[in-house]
Prior knowledge:
The chain is an alpha+beta fold. It has helices at 3-9, 16-24, 69-72; strands at 28-30, 33-34, 46-51, 54-60, 76-82. It has one domain (3-82): RNA-binding S4 domain (Structural Genomics Hypothetical 15.5 Kd Protein In mrcA-pckA Intergenic Region, Chain A, Roll).
Amino acid sequence: MRLDKFLKVSRIIKRRSVAKEISDSGRVLINDKVAKSSTSVNVGDILQVRYGDKTLKLKVSRLSESTKKEDARLMYEIISQEG
């Protein structure tokens, strides 16, 4: 699954256009490597997302093409949150 789609479907970021913009500006790392919006996300990957003064580090636990709001949280585990 594309990074921008994962960020939107998991509701980490509300809009795909915003997810694409954040990804393409180098503020998302997958397994400690800078990732673009088209980078593929797999189960077990560690994502680090910087937006504003916040940094969110999470582990991908599930991939789903679409999800209900209450199930979106099951797609990842938060490792750490700063800011």
